[in-house]
Specification:
By secondary structure, the protein is α/β, with parallel strands linked by helices. The chain is built from 15 helices and 15 strands. The strands form five sheets. A four-stranded parallel β-sheet has the order 4-3-9-10, sandwiched between helices. A hairpin with a 4-residue loop joins β1 and β2. α6 crosses α7 and α10 (307-325) packs across α12. It is elongated, with a radius of gyration of 26 Å. Residues 26, 209, 234, 238 line the site of zinc ion. The site of zinc ion (ZN) has 4 residues, from α7.
Length: 457
Amino acid sequence: MKLYSTLTRDKRDFEPAGDAVTMYVCGITASNSSHVGHALSSVVFDVLHRYLEYRGYAVRRVQNFTDVDDKIIARANAEGLSPEEVAEKYVQEFFRDMDDLNVRRATEHPRATNEIPGIIRMIEGLIEKGNAYPAADESGNVYFRVHSNPEYGKLSGRTVEELLEGVRIDVEPGKEAPPDFALWKASKPGEPSWDSPWGPGRPGWHIECSAMALEYLGETIDIHGGGLDLAFPHHENELAQSECFTGQKPFARFWVHNGLLRLDGAKMSKSLGNLVTVRDALDGYSADAIRMYILTSHYRGPLLYDEDNIGTQERASRRLRQAANVASRADSGKSVDPAPFREHFVEVMDDDLNTPQGLAVIFDLAHEINRGRDAGHEIGAAQAVLRELSDVLGLTLAEPEASEAGLSDADVEARLVSRTEARSNREFAAADAIRDELIAAGIAIEDGPGGTTWSRV
Ligand SMILES: [Zn+2]
């Protein structure tokens, strides 16, 4: 398959260097509820993992949790909890959200606070090699010496000077140069801290990922993933730390970045304060619909948050489910051949994980199944392939859980049939009673020229 790498800025043939694909994906900071932007990144790398397995590779995917940082400490103070309790609460919430989105768990989910010895060893090694230094003011901070690494900037493609333009750099008295960044932060009173050769403190954000990638996947990894907003400075710094420490290049053979979620045209960031949490989205829509909404856009492009689109995907997912489950008369003596669909699916997904086209192939197959059913063809093999390809995208084709009033899709359809009958018999009170029952159950119905459509609201 061909995969785009941010480092080389082109699509290249992907093969793992060893027996299994090694993939490191930057995880969340466990300081708050996950929002749809986190779902976007998780679904993209879940689908990449599933597709690589579908192509016959074993995959080791590691996704970390940042479980100590300023935001977690601030949250702990606000909620009257310890930082450990805050991190644990949001780690568990993340797992619940992602399980419900049918995102498979990574092979390993390491946490920064469990990796302190490896992080300290890495910082010590960087100091020995001249790539890092303890702050001159004896504050207990340790910094990476950016000027010691002539290749710094190669991932984001800019020089150090360009990178610093327009970036606010905190004045830190112990720093040799403005672009240097913290590897170890001395703890302030009341903050969580670990002993180190430089005094009590905690790791900087960037070093934890370098240390965990090394610990769990080795010196060179096949794929490093994360959101495009992490490319600079986080991934640039990770790359510099790892290559300077191990002396092995490249640290990551492919840098895969997903585009970002936009809300009303603006990047969805915590500062906007109008986040849509994963839980909010799951309360309104099925996991299949949310995944399809994400996957109808190519992973490298931006994704606009659009509830109407998710509603459209809800109806589309129903069409897939119906095609997968419809019974056939199978009396024509012919059958629907799914092989060309499978081939086409692999062809488009091999091209940098083109999920919009992969979904289009699945819908073409669903259409062919329906045509074959109407013509009395055998459709069982085609339905099996429909399920197989849907599973590569993590679509369960399961009926969403019944709404609060306990109406399944089939219940709703049955009531709509009764309502149509009542209307054609001019029993309008009975028809209205059915409509009111559906509305009370959270079902929106719309009468159009082509019949009645419905959706869960
Ligand atoms: Zn990271």
